[in-house]
Amino acid sequence: MKEDIVRAGSFLDHAKIFFDLFKLRIGFAIGLTAFAGALAVPGRSAPGWQVALLVACVVAASASAGAFNQYAERDLDARMGRTRNRAFVTGRLAHGPFWLAVIGLMLTLSVCATALALNPVAALFVFLGAFFYGVVYTVILKRRTWLNIVIGGLAGSFAVLAGATAVAPDAVGPVALALAWILFLWTPPHFWSLAIAYRDDYRAAGVPMLPVVVGDARAARAVLGGTVVLVASSLLPLAFGLGVAYAAGAIAGGIVFLRAAARLASDPSRKTAMGSFHASLAQLSLLLLGVILDAALRG
Q1: According to the model, what pLDDT value does residue 68 have?
Q2: What pLDDT was estimated at residue 42?
Q3: pTM (predicted TM-score)
Q4: Residues of the chain whose pLDDT is less than 50?
Q5: What is the distance, to the nearest Å, from the Cα of residue 260 to the centroid of all Cα atoms in its chain?
Q6: Are the beta carbons of 280 and 186 closer than 8 angstroms?
Q7: Which of 207, 203, 186 is CA-nearest to residue 142?
Q8: 250: Cβ contacts below 8 Å, ≥ 6 apart
Q9: Which of 48, 86, 113, 130 has its CA 20 to 30 A from that of 57?
Q10: 78 CB-side CA count, 13 A
Q11: CA 232 to CA 186: how far, in whole Å?
């Protein structure tokens, strides 16, 4: 273990290294989507400890995929200002088989725990979420096509379905499917906003993100168009029984994201791109909060 953590430091230093390595900020968001999926099955429920375990397994699986992403992209990260201080690039963590074993063990334990404590269908979706981000997006698509994040965005959809099938493995209902569709639509405008802000980084690394391929202006219009479709689709769960609390979250979040995306389309810049990126996070947070509050009101 000692040679794998190359540079000594304080506990907080190491905590930050691992927080960044496992992309836990993203992992916690993915876990929240799984929780929302578990609440989005009207008339069905699971014991609280099972839902909590499912969320923990989704977070751990997401963390393993995030760590694998950094392990596999050390060469790209070294060429990008935003990522050049990541642990595998700087040598704070040694790039070698030890970390591959840790990553594989994390994913294996997450999937097996879900299968044993819940059911194999939920376990399959936990696995697919990590697989699509770690392998389909990172290894197969990212260096080859601007569609990388479109297809890779299925990772978030699988988290919703993992939550739903944890509660109802025999029937994924229309609300859960609608939420999975919303997560799929959310990922491209969210990530393309960030890619516009860091276009020069992606160009230097040779990654064909949409702004690199078509330019900032066209990419910004794609963000706006994607946001319009996303916000319209976010109203779908209302047709399947979700109520006022969800409507309030979806509409408020949609307005926030639409305004930011419109500003980006009219004036593509790093400032407006980061504004759109942060607005996308606010939109998703408000929408998921609406799902949770709606379930609480329904009892």
Answers
A1: 95
A2: 75
A3: 0.91
A4: 1-8
A5: 20
A6: yes
A7: 207
A8: 231, 234, 235, 237, 238, 286, 287, 290
A9: 86
A10: 9
A11: 11
